[in-house]
Amino acid sequence: MSKEQTFIASIDQGTTSTRFFIYDKSARIIGSHHVEFTQFYPEAGWVEHDPMEILESVRSCMTKALDKATADGYNVDSGLKAIGLTNQRETVVVWSKSTGSPLYNAIVWMDVRTSSICRKLEKELPGGRTHFVESCGLPLSTYFSAVKLLWLMENKEEVRAAIKKGDALFGTIDTWLIWNLTGGVNGGIHVTDVSNASRTMLMNLQTLDWDKATLKTLGIPAEILPKIVSNAEVIGKIAEGWPLFGVPIAGCLGDQHAAMVGQACRRGEAKCTYGTGAFILLNTGTAPVKSTHGLLTTLAFKLGPKAQTNYALEGSIAIAGAAVQWLRDSLGIISSASEIESLASKVDCTGGVYFVPAFNGLFAPWWRDDARGICIGITRFTSKSHIARAVLESMCFQVKDVLDSMHKDAGEKGEVKNEKEEFLLRVDGGATVNNLLMQIQADLLGSSVVRPADIETTALGAAYAAGIAVGVWKEEELFASGQNIKTSSIFSPKSSVEWRKKKVDSWCKAVERTFGLADLEM
Question: What are the residue boundaries of the structural domains of the chain, listed by start?
């Protein structure tokens, strides 16, 4: 006998995998599936995805999650009210409006092929690296979508020709998926949301529309850009030929913004998502806060066309969990990511080893695309356990670097503290199952780390946004005192101030060693 209920689903399209979750009204997962897809590295520093493979991964996840829920007696077909979408940000696709085919592979957010474009613009523009910060909150960097689009326009004849013919459509992964899910060449809807748009370098943070002056300066035609919508509104319905035909897509957020919603981060509260990279966002309320310490001013979320806009300070770390994947796939030190905790736990320190994963440069707060990865302090005493522990520490040091900058930018009034006068960091993402990683993080911060029962808050945030749009949930209820977040574990610091200072000083020395290494001979 089927169980008649109300359901909300979410697509979580990440850097290495796609996942689909089906939730009941209590936000309990009743069906899910995930599929990993291929990473392409055509040259050093280049990272690409096949947009068609991503599309098929979404189809597969939807089908199999639905099958699982149905097999367990849930009548999802009749009870599913809406679908939310969250995605890897900054990654870009340009495709043909008439055929629906991508004109080149998706260029991924961590790709650094645009370094020369960034250097050229820095020299040419009056404001240099910070020329566009006033409008979009972002510095010139290989990280953001606009320079990836410029590279495609400059280097791919297919893209130039399609733009000239009026046949090109541009978007981040959310735009590519929504266009296809709502019909593709047969009336697909060409949209993005305010959070994803805020990461392109092209959206004005005040008007929440494409900045005409920026488009003119960069020579990007507005006609190829999607319409910008809020994070919680009915965008369109799933087209025929897809699973869940007719269900509305009602929520869309970049992955880090979705995690903020999933963690119910109110003004003065911050979260860190540990995935391929690590991303720390602090909700600054309804006004953008300009960073003077290497952070990004960005949009947090806007949960409805008429809802207030929340802004954030963000520190982006390019390599976090990806360093663990590197240990597994490139060095063979571990055979699965989960093994790193037990391996690193065999020693109580790194033995003086420091690892800086500047594989494609360093993001916040350093912003050095000339940096490259190093592992220093190695002796005959060094074992693979020391290296594994140094990799975990590198993730935590980078988060501390960002949070130190965040505290300086936000000030005392910009942060919420508990009764012990502690600033609590909320954490989520796959890597947070690692208890050793979380304890190291608390020890290096000197303050507690809070891990929720459901660590997949990115997917949950997208579901919440969709549910808000169709009336299943109310924004004020979800954010009321964080009551919807069930805390699983709190990791409190066990380290001394003296130990922490010595470790941080050593880390900073290691980071400085990475600068200027991008031109080392192959």
Answer: 89-229, 323-358+374-398+504-520
